[in-house]
Design a protein that fits this description.
Layout (H helix, E strand, L loop, with lengths): L4 E4 L3 E2 L5 E2 L3 E8 L7 E5 L19 E2 L4 E2 L4 E5 L22 H14 L5 E7 L1 H12 L4 E7 L7 H16 L3 H13 L2 H8 L11 H16 L2 H11 L11 H5 L5 E7 L7 H12 L5 E6 L7 H4 L1 H13 L12
Parallel strand pairs: 5-8, 5-9, 6-7, 9-10, 10-11, 11-12
Antiparallel strand pairs: 1-4, 2-3, 4-8
Organism: Flavobacterium aurantiibacter
Keywords: Transferase
Protein name: Homoserine acetyltransferase
Length: 335
């Protein structure tokens, strides 16, 4: 695993006026030394972390030597959303989770990049919550990103997403086994009926009263409970409903007009969470105003989680972005 670094930052005034005192941003670097190559920022999803590459990397099929996001070419930086618990430091966990928004996290990521002397990045990419943060990063620094690549996500939380976040929050605050129970519900949002039915076919375990699908769900709950903290889950879940690049700004087109990045929206045709239909609406709006907007689609039975499963399809979508450019255009380092 790449070394986990810390960046102590100054107090941050959050979107709602609350002050986040002395935030500590943790991150990992993969590939080329800082300042020698173009930078790609990879944002993690709800239960993810900064370990995106290598033997235990959650996106190692796409990020690594000779991979789509080639660490022989790029400097890859992945931050941990503060409070996700990956650094194992209880002092950095966040109890007042409802004070934070996606915009706050995006600002912290930019503060971290600036602290590292990085002013321009070749691409910011992320799936689900990570993609929502990527949208915000592009709006906060509209001329600092070459490619914005939000995957299985949206620039705003729809009523459907807000409703699901409420259910998760209720489980997390009222269940006797909150992490495990919330995970049961979440897994059925991340997959599809077709995916579940094809995988299990109504089969039972050796214990004849237990269906395989029940054992699979319960195991997912146990695994998450063993590696994730309750405060982290509450925060990550809450952030999903705060996603809105237009809040306290202007309408969507006005907000996005100054963003110079090429925007590559990657939808999943069966996504039950951030639906492909919403992504297409965004594309249809943007394509009337700009040329560097692209809509790609992963076709999969697996639903939302396809961005973590359909690596070959995703590689085919991303390869032209990462393999046909002059990366030195985006080397910007002030230290």
């Amino acid at each position: 695993m790449a070394h986990l670094f810390n960046i102590p930052l100054t107090d941050l005034r959050l979107q709602n006026g609350y002050t986040y005192a002395k935030p500590v941003l943790t991150y990992q670097v993969f590939g080329q030394t800082l300042g020698t190559a173009a930078v790609v920022v990879v944002n993690h999803a709800l239960t993810g972390n900064s370990n995106v590459s290598g033997p235990e990397g959650w996106w190692s099929e796409l990020v690594g030597s000779g991979k789509t996001i080639d660490t022989d070419v790029f400097t890859v930086i992945a931050f941990n959303i503060p409070g996700n618990g990956y650094d194992k430091n209880p002092a950095n966990l966040i109890s007042e989770y409802k004070q934070f928004t996606v915009r706050d996290i995006a600002q912290l990521f930019w503060n971290g990049l600036h602290a590292l002397g990085i002013e321009r990045i070749f691409a910011v990419i992320g799936g689900s919550l990570g993609g929502a943060i990527a949208w915000e990063m592009a709006v906060l620094q509209p001329r600092s990103i070459g490619h914005l690549i939000p995957i299985a996500t949206d620039w705003k939380a729809t009523d459907w997403v807000i409703a699901q976040v409420l259910i998760q929050d209720q489980i997390l605050n009222n269940s006797d086994d909150p992490i495990a129970d919330a995970r049961l519900h979440a897994m059925l949002l991340y997959r599809t009926p077709e995916s579940i039915n094809q995988r299990f076919g109504r089969t039972r375990t050796n214990e004849s009263s237990v269906f395989q699908v029940e054992r699979w769900l319960l195991n997912h709950g146990i695994k998450l409970k063993n590696r994730f903290t309750l405060s982290a889950y509450k925060l990550m879940n809450h952030l999903l409903k705060t996603n809105d690049i237009t809040k306290e700004r202007a309408d969507f087109l006005q907000v996005i007009r100054n963003v110079t990045a090429a925007i590559h929206i990657v939808a999943v045709d069966t996504d039950l969470f951030f639906t492909a239909a919403e992504n297409r609406k965004t594309f249809e709006i943007l394509k009337t105003k700009r040329e560097n907007i692209f809509l790609h689609q992963i076709n999969s039975v697996h639903g939302h989680d396809a961005f973590l499963i359909e690596n070959e399809q995703l590689s085919q979508i991303l390869n032209p972005i990462f393999h046909t450019q002059k990366t030195n255009t985006y080397v910007s380092y002030n230290h």
